[in-house]
Write a structure and sequence with these properties.
The protein is of the alpha+beta class. The protein contains 5 helices and 7 strands. The protein is rod-shaped.
Length: 189
């Protein structure tokens, strides 16, 4: 800093003309500490941008977690249905095995017959056509059949079995389970 030689007003040292009297000033470069002074440029405040980014990220994460996208992320890949890859012969083998195991466990020896749906004549279990299933048993308790048949109902459509008929020789009862494609099998008395 120095004073103006004309009016003695204090100057900063970089003014070329006195703002008070207009006298021309001699500016010395490099010798004074204020000669290289530059006012500070305003910088960008990044904090509002960072906070906005965090808030938007949290809102998007919450919105996605409560939508169908979040459901897929939480649950992962859906489990494959074993019925999709099962062939009709595998389904028929499963039905025969479940019926034999279940009925033998309650003391009935089942006789399983595969019948052609059109001619009602016995056919091979592996025939690639819809077949009816006849099961002849002798049950001590006629209600014992329900849990056994319920296990195989889901396989009837895949096995191409439109009708499962169960005949009880002991009680002379006759049960028929009809399968409608796309629906659960219904029981007829």
């Amino acid at each position: 800093m120095h004073d103006c030689p004309g009016c003695r007003v204090p100057l900063h040292g970089y003014e070329e003309v006195c703002p008070s009297c207009g006298t021309r000033q001699v500016v010395r470069k490099g010798g004074r500490q204020f000669s290289s002074f530059k006012p500070e440029q305003p910088s960008i405040n990044w904090m509002p941008f960072v906070l906005t980014f965090i808030v938007v990220g949290v809102v998007i994460a919450f919105a996605m977690s409560s939508s169908w996208v979040g459901k897929i992320v939480r649950e992962g890949k859906p489990a494959e249905d074993p019925m999709e890859k099962m062939t009709y012969t595998e389904a028929r083998n499963t039905i025969e095995q479940e019926l034999t195991t279940g009925l033998t466990a309650v003391g009935a020896n089942p006789k399983i017959t595969w019948m052609d749906t059109a001619t009602e004549k016995p056919v091979d279990k592996n025939a690639d056509q819809p077949v009816n299933l006849n099961v002849d048993v002798s049950l001590a308790d006629s209600n014992a059949r329900k849990p056994i048949v319920d296990k195989v109902k889901d396989f009837m459509e895949k096995a191409k079995i439109p009708t499962l008929t169960m005949n009880d020789a002991k009680t002379h009862a006759h049960w028929t389970y009809n399968m409608t494609p796309g629906a659960a099998p219904a029981e007829d008395q």
